[in-house]
Amino acid sequence: MATTNEPDLNPGDEATPGTPGAGEDICEACSGSGKLSDGKSCPQCGGSGRVMRGIGGG
Fold this sequence. Notes:
The protein has a domain at 21-58. 0% of the residues lie in helices and 17% in strands. It has strands at 22-26, 50-54. The chain has a two-stranded antiparallel ribbon. The radius of gyration is 13 Å and the shape is globular. It starts with 21 loop residues before the first strand and ends with a strand.
């Protein structure tokens, strides 16, 4: 069975943690609460309230 050292990404993540030019941001889907209005865990951030975004200029 093959294993991978890659971290799990949530749908709202644009980069893996530690990627140069990326930083943690508040999830727009749940406003950082980790839950949606129906009380369920936010699927965009995996319930953490945070997503990884690309930062910097291009």
